[in-house]
């Protein structure tokens, strides 16, 4: 019998313009799983948190991740998973990706690390598919690998880790509004006008160029989404007003985190990030919407072990 304890970070998908292809990892916030492997052939999942999760393991994102890993390595084992810390589902900061990443990474560690980082991400994407009905890696890849990632392609999966400026901070707010990831994807148009597509391509190119050149101003200008945000922002009360206040306070950009309802402001100063967090809290307090606020650095660290026993 061998047991690992694994932490996987929260993440922000899209960074505005990078729908399904860009994401970043956050410091400090995330999921913790304990995974035990022993002789046998089965899977149990125990939730020791106060966060409500499916009691049917077939509806838990961890299940397809574990099964995919065992299929790839052609092994059988009794796997027992305990969820010790959990991001609230539907929060928009990669709840399903954190559990999926922790499960994939933990399984890889238990079996001697036979998979590459990209293969671990592929396993984690099985959980994302169960959660949202699609194989996307903009949360799973940064959760596994850390930093800011670009998914250049999915067939085959091609992940590029991009530079993270040392002074990148995020103020992230999770208002207590439920936005189902699948519903947030279903609301999007099936076709995009050429004018909007050209704008989005230019912004994605500008974001990548800004990260590689260290041009923080360019990063902020490029983080504009003309594809998903116009449809999804209506889930978030007072979205446009909140953005105006945050930009006036010195934030580089403000966007929806993934499919929402969380929103984030990116800054290059810790004091500005703290001010952004206060503005976010005040905004939702006035609307009588409870929320959590996190002010954290963009993290270069992905999923990691925080304990092993044999």
Distance between the termini: 6 Å
CATH topology group of the largest domain? Ribosomal Protein S5, domain 2
Tell me the number of structural domains: 2
CATH A-level architecture of the largest domain? 2-Layer Sandwich
Structural class: alpha+beta
Order of helices and strands: EEEHEHHHEEEHHHHHEEHEE
Please tell me how large the radius of gyration is: 19 Å
Which word captures the global form?
A: globular
Major sheet: size, sense and barrel closure? 7 strands, mixed
- Broad CATH class of the largest domain: Alpha Beta
Model regions low in confidence, pLDDT < 50 over at least 5 residues: none
Number of strands: 11
Overview in brief:
With 310 residues, this protein is α+β, with helices and mostly antiparallel strands. Helices cover 37% and strands 27% of the residues. Strands 1, 2, 3, 4, 5, 6 and 11 form a 7-stranded mixed sheet that branches.
Describe the 3D structure.
There is one protein chain. With 310 residues, this protein is of the alpha+beta class. The chain folds into two domains: 2-163 and 299-309, Ribosomal Protein S5, domain 2, CATH 3.30.230; 169-297, GHMP kinase, C-terminal domain (Alpha-Beta Plaits, 2-Layer Sandwich), CATH 3.30.70.890. It is built from ten helices and eleven strands. It has helices spanning 62-73, 95-110, 117-132, 140-145, 181-186, 194-213, 216-222, 229-232, 239-248, 270-286; strands at residues 2-13, 22-38, 42-47, 78-85, 148-154, 157-162, 169-175, 253-256, 263-267, 291-297, 304-309. Strands 1, 2, 3, 4, 5, 6 and 11 form a seven-stranded mixed sheet that branches. A four-stranded antiparallel sheet has the order 8-9-7-10, with helices on both faces. Helix 1 (62-73) runs antiparallel to helix 3, helix 2 (95-110) packs antiparallel against helix 3 (117-132) and helix 6 (194-213) runs antiparallel to helix 7 (216-222). The longest helix is centred in the middle third of the chain and has 20 residues, at 194-213.
